[in-house]
Amino acid sequence: RTVLRELTELQMKNPDISPLESLPDTDPNVFYKRYLKKIRDLGEGNFGKVMLYVYDPANDGTGECVAVKSLKHEGGGHHHEGWMKEIEILKSLYHTNIVKYKGCCSELGQVVQLIMEYLPLGSLRDYLPKHRLGVAHCLLFAQQICQGMDYLHYKRYIHRDLAARNVLVENKCLVKIGDFGLTKYIPEGDVYYRVREDGDSPVFWYAIECLKESKFSFSSDIWSFGVTLYEILTHCDPRQSPPAFLQMMENVQGQMTMMLLIKLLEKHNRLPCPRDCPHEVHLLMRQCWDFDPARRPSFKSLIESIEEIRK
Ligand code: ADP
Ligand code: MG
C-alpha cells in the first residue's frame, strides 16, 4: 500500500517517468485543476491565453512550472473543434524545436486547458528587443525555426501562423515553435488548404496567394518564414514591424485594407533589407517572397543555405 502511494506521488511529481501508465487515475497527461496554482499571465493572441502555473500535486512546494493555454472566449461552439485539433496536433509532434505537450486539464468532461512545457524567456517578440543579437546568433535561431518547420512539413502539416510572436525561447541557444492554433493537415496528394472562415488573420505575414485566393500551402509557410526572418533581423523593433512598414509604404492611416496590401505586393514591393543584415540573408527573404509559390525554397534547402552563410 505505502509503496504504491509513494510511487504514485513520485510519478505525479515527475510525469516523464510513468511506471504506472496502466492505471487511469495516474495518467501523466491528466492534470487536475486543484493542483494547478496560477503564477502570472504569459501572453495572449487572437484566440488563446497562456498563463504560468505551478503544478504541485504533493502540495509541498516541489511542483513544476507549466504553461497553460485556454481559449479566450470559452464555450464558443465553432472554436471548440479547432481547439481540440490544436491539442491533437501538438500531442503528435516530437521535435527539439517544437514546444512539448504535457497534458490536458478537463472540467465537466470538456478539455479546458492545454498544458505545455514552460519556456522561461517568452516569445521572440518579447526576447529580441531586450537582447540585441548579432547576425550569427539571429541565423542560429532562424535555422532552428527551419528545422522545426521542416519536421512539421514532413508530418504534412502547414502552420499558417509562423511569426516571431509564435516562436518561443528556451535559452540563449534554443528556440521552439509554439501555437498550432491555425495548423492544418494536408492529405497526401493535396497541395493546399483553402480557408473558409477568415477572422483575424495575420495578413502581413501572408503570402500573396493566401490574400488573393485563401490558398495555404507548404510554400505559404515559407513566405511567413521570410517575414519571421525579417522580424528577427530587425530585433522585432515595433517601428519596423511588417504592419508598420507596409502601411508606411502605401501611406495608409489606420487599418490597411487587404486590397491595398495585395496591390502593393503585386507591384513587387516587399519589406526592405534590415539594417546590418547581410546581403545573402536579404536574398533568402526575397526568395521566400517570390510571387510564384513553386519558386520559393523548401525548409530543407533553407537549412542548407543558412548553414552556408553561418560558416
Ligand atoms: P494564441 O493562439 O492566442 O496566439 P499562443 O500559443 O501564441 O496563443 O500564446 C500567446 C503568447 O503566450 C505567446 O506569444 C507567448 O508570449 C506566450 N507563451 C505561449 N506559450 C508559452 C510557453 N510554453 N512558455 C512561455 N510563454 C508562452
Ligand atoms: Mg500566437
From TrEMBL:
The active-site annotation reads: 161
Q: Where does ATP bind?
A: 42-50, 69
Q: Which residues form a coiled coil?
A: none
In this chain the Protein kinase domain maps to 36-309
Question: Which family, according to UniProt?
Answer: Belongs to the protein kinase superfamily. Tyr protein kinase family.
Q: What protein does this entry describe?
A: Tyrosine-protein kinase
Q: Which residues of the full protein are shown?
A: 721 to 1031 of 1046
